[in-house]
Every structure is written in C-alpha cells, then in structure tokens.
Design a protein that fits this description.
Elements: H1 3-9, E1 18-24, H2 27-36, E2 43-54, E3 60-63, E4 68-76, H3 79-83, H4 88-104, E5 109-111, E6 115-118, E7 121-133, E8 136-146, H5 165-169, H6 175-192, H7 195-204, E9 212-216, E10 223-230, E11 236-240, E12 243-247, E13 253-256
Parallel strand pairs: 1-2
Antiparallel strand pairs: 2-3, 2-4, 4-8, 5-6, 6-7, 7-8, 9-10, 9-13, 10-11, 11-12
Helix pairs in contact: 4-6, 4-7
C-alpha cells in the first residue's frame, strides 16, 4: 500500500490529504504534529502497523500488520462543532456503527463514551484529542478497529474481552473499503450538524442502556446505578442510589454491573 493508491481508494470520501505509514508509533501523535504544521481540514493519517497507539486513560492499542485499521482524522471545528465538542467522540462512534451496519448487517453497540462492541466484546476504540492552533479549534479523531483475529489482543486485567469484524461478520473484510465507509459516514454527520439526531442515534445503540452498571472512578469504590441515556451534551445519564447524575467522560468508566 502507498499513499497514492490509498488516496485513489478513498476518492469518494471527504478526505483532503493523507499520510500513510507502514509502521508508526501512534497515528494520533503524527496527526497532532501535522496539525501543528498546517494540516488541512479532514486530513488523514493511517498506518498498517501501530506500535505505541493509546486509548483513554493511557491504555495501549497495538496494531499488528495487515490485521486492523489504525487511523486519525484531523478536523478544524466549525463554530457549531466547537459548541458541541463533547459530541465529537460520539459522532465518530456513530460513523463506525453506520459503516458496520451498512456493509456487514452487524448490530454494533456504543459503549459510552468511546468503544464500539460487537456481540458484547470490544471491536473498536476511539480517542479524540483537541488542540488550538492560533484562534482555530481543531481535533484529532483516532480510531482503531480490529479487522482479523490477529488483531484481537489477550484480555488484560480489568479490560473488556475483544473481538474483530471478521469474526462477527463471518466473512472476509476489506479493511480499506470499511475505512472508506467510516469516513463517508463521518463526513455526512459533520455536514448535517444535526446534534439532536446524533444523540438519538447513539442512544438507540448504547450498550447497557436501561441496565445496571458500575460507575468506575479513580481512587474510589464503584457506584451502582442504571444507565438511563444521554443528555444534550453527550454526558451519560445514570440513576444512582443518591439520585440522577450526569457523567462526563474524563477518567470515568461504565461497566455492566458485577452485582
């Protein structure tokens, strides 16, 4: 794979420019560097192998050659997007879900705020990092998708079990065709700027919606509650024993209740 070939494969997507790497530490790091030096809106960094990828709370996301999608999209936020910046991770999640639904008739679920699950197991992770360049607010949307069984990591302590798209779909997957579908869906959500519709879409596909969950916070005991949905800012709404609470992403995790 080279940049010109990949760009031809993605010619019907909103991508403006791209950088392709056979091996890279982190596509998000490369995208942040490119952003600082003047990357245009909807520029793409993608790699065949990622050796130092990361998720939320500094979890590792390693990508073996030929087995997964590892890419980052640079977006310069419009005024409306900046006002709804908390919804950008959910917009990325909606784009991945739509691509998996339309291409493979799968039934993905969004584990708030940044994971995509198939059959109750993690298949995709999303990490959004924001940056100001002068007066311009921008974001790097990092997405990793397990495509083949070789991409599925061993289960780490405290981590969710994982799967891949090929296992869930029970057929071979063209990872670059899936990449194109994700990018087109992401572009469509951006162009629409229909945040209420985005909230409804994500909520309809939320993992654990209406179920008992444990609210996991650093240096604190888990708190039990019921996941009730999302508010307009993208915060999770959880009914705790002490009352209803809005949960912002940060270092908070939601897990199915162990009780």
């Amino acid at each position: 794979m080279n940049e010109s070939h990949l760009l031809s494969l993605l010619s019907d997507t909103p991508i403006s420019l791209l950088k392709w790497f056979d091996t890279i530490g982190s596509t998000n790091d490369a995208a942040l560097e490119w952003l600082a030096s003047g990357a245009p809106d909807f520029a793409l960094v993608a790699a065949d192998q990622q050796t130092a990828g990361r998720g939320r709370m500094q979890r590792r996301w390693i990508t073996n050659p030929g087995s997964a999608l590892a890419f980052s999209v640079i977006i310069h936020l419009t005024q409306d997007e900046e006002a709804h910046s908390g919804l950008i991770p959910l917009m990325a999640g909606a784009a991945v879900c739509q691509a998996l639904e339309h291409r493979y008739a799968l039934h993905p679920r969004i584990k708030w705020p940044n994971d995509i699950m198939l059959d109750g197991r993690k298949t995709c992770g999303i990490l959004v990092e924001s940056q100001w360049i002068g007066s311009l607010a921008s974001a790097v949307i990092g997405i990793g998708v397990n495509i083949t069984p070789e991409a599925v990591p061993e289960v780490e302590a405290g981590a969710l079990p994982a799967t891949c798209v090929e296992e869930a779909a029970a057929l071979p997957v063209d990872r670059f065709a899936l990449l194109g579908s994700i990018l087109k869906s992401l572009g469509a959500w951006r162009a629409a700027e229909k945040w209420d519709e985005l909230i409804l879409y994500v909520q309809s596909r939320m993992a654990y919606l209406g179920d008992p969950v444990d609210l996991m916070e650093p240096n604190a005991s888990p708190r039990a509650g019921i996941l009730a949905g999302l508010d307009a800012s993208g915060a999770a709404v959880v009914d705790l024993l002490t009352g209803r609470e809005l949960i912002r992403a940060g270092d908070v995790r939601l897990r199915p209740s162990s009780r």
